[in-house]
Amino acid sequence: MNETALRRALLAIAILGLAIGGAVWRTGLGPLEADMIWTVATLPVVVALAISILRDFWIGRFGVDAIALVSMSAALLLGQPLAAVVVAIMYAGGTVLEDFARGRAERNLKALTDRSPRVAHRKSPQGTVTISVEEVAVGDALMVHAGELLPVDGILLDASASLDESAVTGEPLPVRRSPGDVLRSGTLNAGETFSMRASALAQQSTYAAIVRMVAAAQTAKSPFIRMADRFALFLLPATLLVSGAAWYISGDPIRALAVLVVATPCPLILAAPVAFIGGLSHAARAGILMKGSAALEALALVRTAIFDKTGTLTIGGAELIEIEAAPDRDADNLLQLLASLEQASHHVLADSIIRAARGRQLILSHPRDVREHRGAGLNGRIENMSITAGSRTLVLADKPLPGWAKCGEEKYRDKPVLRVFVALGGRLAGVFTFGDALRVDARDALGKLRSAGIARMIMLTGDDSVATGRISAMLDLDAVVADATPVDKVETVRAEQALAPTMMVGDGINDAPALAAATVGVAMGARGATASSEAADVIVLTDRLQPVADAVRIARRTRAIALQSIIAGLALSGLAMIAAAMGQVTPVAGALIQEGIDVAVILNALRALGDGHLGRT
Fold first, then answer.
1. According to the UniProt entry, where is the signal peptide (predicted)?
2. Does 382 share its domain with 467?
3. Which residue, 238, 428, 535, 613, shows the most beta carbons closer than 10 Å to its own?
4. Are residues 430 and 477 in the same domain?
């Protein structure tokens, strides 16, 4: 039986024991039998709590649970089993609520390791043999088919290769590689089959290193410590001192027991978990998944926010930036023809082109006689018109650019964009430029994070300084770090973390180590970036940046409500302790008073379910 099931069983036993004992007592069959039932129902909670306290003490933790153990034990020894079983219910109920609040969400590497390359195609004089990636040796000649992951790091042997490196670098656009270029494991072959020479073993390659970094960063994270434990060193001795004084002054041990019962720290045990449950539920309604109350509490303390660029601050795909049309051509008509042709393509740009056309309510035609030149473009016929679309080399060959197209060529020279040339009937008719675009809500989201208390914001990206500069110029950022590898990202996060609690926001597998290393990792998980989602503490399920600001506001409001509940509960318990010490409260009455305090605390904590001031700037 796991701990969660055990705690639920203990709560069920205590409640059942209270109900059965109460029924026996009310029927008058025998008060001794009722006391026996309540005692039996309390003992399992006492034993389990004692074992838990010893285990925590062994690892250097000491919490307020000790007060509950002392009060239940004292109640049983002093012949007050009804008070003991009520305290047992309060304690067991608190642990069950805490389990629910945390959700037992465990970080794991399953999604990340599932994507790891499994096989490689090794070339030999007898042909190509498929082997396990662990069998690849340095120097092996490997064949990588279209759509396959590169199994290990290596050197390109063929004339060229088109690679989707987004999983490792975060760069959304396919990259052309030349002979002798370094290739990294975990990237995707987005073009034709090519040959490479292995330069590292699988366990020493880029992707395996990312997996190890995520595991190490997660292991280094501190475990969640309940908010109640922070008061333990003060509350336990204070309670024992007051109860001892009451016993000494009055000579009545029952007064001491009453003090212990009303001091049972259910406001501490219950307040934070109930508030956190409300905060977690509120966040879920806003499309934000927080992995337990530990993540929520940590997010409430964040003062620095670090953002990846591609897919986080930007859309993360190739979006249409500009259409340059020949003087005798209409831009919308060109987009309509190009999108019609791209319906037959599997290129990464096809979806963006078709989406742009449909966004303008253009009606697409059925393409015919389509021939795709992998990695270069395609040609076919649309409405009896010959159309070719793709790279400048494919469309123009050695022909010079017409005058109307030269301005755009200069404008986008050395810029991180893709240019699609379109020819109709063999004549250049237009040029489409695609690039990564800033998210529509990026500026607003960063502004709301500022108002929520985030003092420092940084863009951290693997892209070059040219691509980074275009995006950073549009945002209110305190610093920009470009050309960062996964290792650089982790080091940057750790440097900022040494100055203030830090939140890292990213969406790619290359962000996973940094997400795991940060105080709080926030993954933009709407697109199924499972590796970064598994490494993160918070996952934004909607494809917007605004929920990141909402998450911070929810976390801070929830933590404030939890603290209010704790302080109010302790104050009310303190007043009840004084009344008990003066002989005004019996142990059973004290347990009922404490239950009333618990209800007040819970009602206040449940305010975390509401919006409060969420959304105000």
1. none
2. no
3. 535
4. no
From 211, 101, 102, 195, select the one nearest 150 (Cα to Cα).
Answer: 195
- CATH number (domain holding residue 308): 3.40.50.1000
311 and 323 in a single domain? The answer is no
Q: Is the separation of the CB atoms in 91 and 68 below 8 Å?
A: yes
Query: Average of pLDDT values for 579-608?
Result: 79
Q: Which residues contact 598 (CB under 8 A, 6 or more apart)?
A: 90, 266, 267, 270, 569
Three-state DSSP state, 455 = coil
The confidence score (pLDDT) of residue 147 equals 86
Last residue of a domain, one of 199, 218, 235: 199
Q: Are 456 and 308 members of one domain?
A: yes
Burial readout 220-244 (b: 16 or more C-beta within 10 A, e: otherwise): ebeeeebbbbebbeebbeebbebbe
3 state SS for 483-509: CCCHHHHHHHHHHHHCCCCEEEEECCH
Q: Token pair of 342, please?
A: 């791209």
Q: Residue 140: which pLDDT band, with cuts at 50, 70 and 90?
A: very high
Distance CA 337, CA 183 (A): 36
Domain endpoint, select from 143, 178, 199: 199
Angle between helices 331-342 and 350-359 (to 10 degrees): 130
pLDDT at 101: 42
**Domain presence at residue 555:** no
**Side-by-side strand order, sheet with 456-460:** 288-290, 538-540, 520-524, 502-506, 304-307, 456-460, 479-481
Contact 83, 261 (CB under 8 A): yes
Query: 447 and 417, same structural domain?
Result: no
Q: Is it the case that residue 600 has pLDDT exceeding 70?
A: yes
d(CA 288, CA 522): 10
pLDDT recorded at residue 379: 92
Instruction: Judge whether 323 lies within some domain.
Output: yes
CATH number, domain with residue 164: 2.70.150.10
Question: For 439-454, b where at least 16 C-beta lie within 10 A, e where not — what string?
Answer: beebeebbebbbebeb
pLDDT on residue 592:
75
| Structural domains counted in the chain | 3
Residue 52 domain-assigned? no
Q: Based on the domain organization, do 361 and 292 belong to the same domain?
A: no
**Residue 137: which domain range?**
118-151+153-199
Q: How confident is the model at residue 609 (pLDDT cuts 50, 70, 90)?
A: confident
The answer to whether residue 596 sits within a structural domain is no
Q: What is the pLDDT of residue 267?
A: 57
336 and 413 housed in the same domain: yes
Q: Of all residues in the chain, what percent carry a pLDDT higher than 90? A: 26
